Amino acid sequence: MPATVSILNYEPAHQPAFRALNQEWISRYFTLEAPDKAMLDDPEGYILAPGGYIFMADYAGELVGTCALIKEREGVYELAKMAVSPRVQGLGIGWALGEAALQKARQLGAQRVELLSNSQLTPALTLYKKLGFRSVPVPPSPYQRANVKMIIDL
């Protein structure tokens, strides 16, 4: 991780950056769907209140990345809403966010972290594999774009 990157816990003032970072990548490859809009407009209600966490990456004083842990059920969290600005991709920021999320999941006593992705997102899938995730069959999802499911047992 570059020395100038810090991983921060989400604060309400981060919501515009959380929304913009996710909207940027989703809109580039796919369509912003109703579940996206709900979460991006109200991360406190949809992610934090039910027991989840959001991390923000600060690089040289600018919020350039984000990642959420959404509580699915007892012992299981979803890694979601991971985004890193294209301007700083390749600097290890996604890795730092993923590591922070997995460390938090372990602290919370999670046995498993799951994620949904898309086969077009090769750099993201490569990162998830490096973090230790493995592919499993994809169940029905609220997201049309989800055609990959990965899990990691902690």
Please state the average pLDDT score. Answer: 94
SS elements, strand count:
7
> What class do helices, strands and sheet pairing give?
alpha+beta
Radius of gyration: 14 Å
Distance between the termini: 22 Å
Q: Number of folding domains?
A: 1
CATH class: Alpha Beta
CATH architecture: 3-Layer(aba) Sandwich
**Spatial shape:** globular
Give helix % range: 25-40%
What do we call the CATH topology? Aminopeptidase
Describe this structure in words.
The chain is of the alpha+beta class. The protein has one domain (5-153): Aminopeptidase. Helices cover 35% and strands 31% of the residues. It has 5 helices and 7 strands, in the order E-H-H-H-E-E-E-H-E-H-E-E. The protein has helices spanning 15-29, 34-41, 43-48, 93-107, 122-131, and strands spanning 5-9, 53-59, 62-73, 76-84, 112-117, 134-136, 148-153. The chain has a 7-stranded mixed sheet with strand order 1-2-3-4-5-7-6. The two termini are 22 Å apart.
